[in-house]
Amino acid sequence: MMIARRSSGKRSVGGRAWRRGFTLFEFAIAVSVIAVLAAVLLNRLAAYQQEAERIAVQQTVGALRAGLRMKTLELYLADRQNQLPALAGQNPMQWLAETPLNYLGEYASSEIENLPQSHWFFDRSNAELIYILKRGNTFGASRSELLQFKVSLQQAPASAAGPPASMAVPEVVLVRIGGTGGLK
């Protein structure tokens, strides 16, 4: 009669018993691989967040420029071109049907340090619309950069087919002040 033996999960190699499973070395390698993959994933996520923020700013600026064109055309149609210079000091967010959710309102320059990143605000003292861009390191402290826009009255370039330069009509534009800050 033969008795069946149950295996206890241990095998004997060279007189030593060992268990099935990870050794400490194999576990350390697995943890290292997972850590490298997590770091790559976090880096890609940060890049996608920056790209999404850039696109959101571009869309808002596009909407502001469209609102400015509408306001300008409204003045031309009402034969009130003499009111165009007054647009240069106004808050362009007022021309939108609905302000963005990340618009904080109007502030003075001295209050800028306390405002959160990734938000718009209008600086009353300089008549500038400012976006606080979030530029951060995944593992370090983030820093912010200001994207500044201003409504400006400019002379339209004279063309050969158009009226003479003395009769050129001024145009109101939303211009970016300073560098591009990653904004195209």
* Poorly predicted tracts of residues: none
Percentage of residues in DSSP E strands: 25-35%
Mean pLDDT over all positions: 81
Please tell me what the overall shape is. elongated
State the major sheet. Answer: 5 strands, mixed
Radius of gyration: 31 Å
How helix-rich are the residues, as a percent range? 25-40%
Number of helical segments with 4 or more residues? 2
Question: What's the order of the H and E elements?
Answer: EEHHEEEEE
Question: Widest sheet: strand order?
Answer: 3-4-5-6-7
| Secondary structure: number of strands | 7
Oligomer classification? single chain
| Distance between the ends | 86 Å
Structural class: alpha+beta
Task: Please tell me about this protein's structure.
- By secondary structure, the protein is of the alpha+beta class.
- It contains 2 helices and 7 strands.
- It has helices at 24-77, 84-87; strands spanning 10-13, 16-19, 103-107, 119-123, 128-135, 143-155, 170-177.
- The protein has a 5-stranded mixed β-sheet with strand order 3-4-5-6-7. Strands 1-2 form a two-stranded antiparallel ribbon.
- A hairpin with a 7-residue loop joins β5 and β6 (143-155).
- It is elongated, with a radius of gyration of 31 Å.
